[in-house]
Inverse folding.
């Protein structure tokens, strides 16, 4: 049935699909989604392999390389990997200077970057509806946030099926007023940053809006910036000084319990700039949470629109923020570009895209310790990349993680320990891509580590726990 529905999606009038063939393996390292040079070309994706033994760290424009004749849409700001697929959301389908029309929605294999689906429209009626972000719910469904509400994406059918009632833009024709932005899925609910309404709470089973948390609980007239989920299970919301997208940030965070919806305002001291927000020309923001430490990160400055020099780390236990990087003192003149900063979900290291200025096409990716100390710089070829998000491979968002346990010198594949959480009492099965059962085990603990035996050859495998599956790469 899934194959039939997928075939129907292929021939849908608004969609383009490409049959994947054997290609490069990008399972090691991570992707960087680039806005790229507006007015000249569509958006791009680069791939960084930061531990490549040969020193060949960068692969450029990998989506175009793996899909000849196909491109992304215009001003792609968001990428997310979910159940083996990467969802790239663009604001429009085509840059004014491009010759190829891409899509507001592009779905590609997360390992090979070969396209499986693309659509020019989010709202099938053709009404104004520019892309913002994506969040996966399960293997069958995801949500797409836009300039006009949140939309349900049917993964089996590969199509947008409906707009969630109550999430729409009060002015449907507006692009930068009343828009939806970042989203988090946890505890059966999706939490959405809505520029004019605050934090929306959606029941993911029924696709129904069940609550709205207005930011006036923080301060009169305050708006929302973006929302993240921290390692402690709580949600943390950055706060805008208004709902108009003027760029000012309010000096506080809002802590939200995703189950009870209880809130706590966390004031920030006068010597700490709050997280910058970007409703004025939407990006995902630099505000982010570590998966390995009880910490948040953000960029801040006097002008939220150009908060490129100061990087903060916030300790969730002590509720204290400290400056960990100050590019005002950088001898080489580097500064953060936009929102392009995220901690690695396994190592906890902080990766950030740096540049010298908007008229200079010189960029690097800087790798830092969780406390902001530089580990390594990765220079790039000259181009106006205007990078947005680093996008890491899945590491347990649905309960299954793979832990790096060997040298990266073995054919680029580096995993031989499987970590499974939240499946105690269930069976774990390891299969080859052909479906042959390689190993089976009973998961006897809430956090369970399974070491793959030496008799299993290097290659790509599928691990299943309960109704959740992950593709893993094994080296020897």
């Amino acid at each position: 049935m899934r194959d039939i529905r997928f075939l129907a999606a292929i021939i849908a009038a608004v969609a383009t699909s490409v049959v994947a063939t054997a290609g490069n393996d990008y399972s090691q390292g991570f992707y960087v989604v680039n806005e790229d040079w507006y007015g000249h070309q569509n958006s791009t994706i680069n791939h960084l392999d930061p531990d490549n033994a040969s020193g060949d760290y960068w692969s450029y424009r990998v989506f175009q390389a793996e899909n000849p004749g196909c491109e992304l849409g215009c001003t792609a700001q968001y990428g997310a990997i979910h159940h083996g697929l990467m969802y790239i959301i663009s604001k429009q389908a085509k840059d004014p200077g491009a010759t190829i029309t891409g899509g507001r929605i592009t779905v590609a294999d997360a390992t090979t970057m070969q396209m499986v689906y693309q659509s020019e429209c989010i709202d099938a009626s053709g009404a104004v509806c520019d892309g913002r972000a994506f969040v996966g719910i399960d293997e069958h469904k995801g949500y797409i946030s836009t300039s006009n509400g949140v939309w349900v994406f049917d993964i089996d059918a590969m199509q947008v099926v409906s707009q969630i009632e109550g999430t729409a833009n009060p002015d449907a024709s507006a692009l930068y007023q009343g828009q939806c932005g970042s989203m988090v899925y946890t505890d059966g609910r999706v939490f959405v940053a809505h520029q004019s309404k605050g934090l929306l709470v959606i029941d993911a089973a029924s696709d129904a809006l069940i609550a709205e948390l207005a930011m006036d609980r923080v301060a009169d007239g305050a708006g929302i910036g973006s929302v993240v989920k921290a390692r402690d299970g709580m949600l943390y919301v950055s706060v805008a000084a208004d709902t108009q997208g003027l760029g000012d940030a309010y000096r506080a965070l809002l802590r939200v319990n995703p189950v009870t919806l209880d809130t706590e305002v966390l004031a920030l001291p006068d010597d700490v700039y709050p997280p910058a927000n970007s409703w004025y020309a939407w990006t995902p923001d630099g505000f982010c949470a570590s998966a390995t430490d009880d910490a948040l990160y953000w960029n801040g400055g006097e002008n939220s629109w150009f908060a490129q020099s100061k990087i903060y780390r916030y300790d969730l236990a002590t509720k204290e923020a400290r400056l960990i990087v100050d590019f005002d003192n950088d001898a080489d003149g580097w500064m953060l570009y936009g929102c392009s900063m995220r901690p690695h979900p396994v190592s906890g290291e902080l990766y950030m895209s740096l540049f010298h200025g908007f008229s200079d096409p010189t960029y690097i990716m800087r790798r830092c310790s969780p406390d902001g100390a530089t580990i390594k710089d990765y220079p790039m070829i000259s181009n106006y990349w205007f990078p947005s998000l680093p996008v890491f491979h899945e590491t347990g968002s649905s309960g299954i993680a793979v832990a790096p346990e060997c040298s990266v010198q073995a054919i680029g594949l580096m995993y031989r320990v499987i970590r499974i959480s939240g499946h105690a009492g269930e069976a774990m099965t390891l299969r080859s891509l052909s479906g042959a059962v390689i190993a089976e085990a009973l998961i006897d603990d809430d956090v369970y580590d399974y070491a793959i035996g030496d008799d299993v050859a290097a290659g790509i495998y599928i691990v299943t726990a309960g109704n959740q599956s992950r593709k893993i790469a094994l080296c020897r």
About this structure: Residues 310 and 326 are 5 Å apart (CA to CA). Residues 2-10 form the longest helix (9 residues).
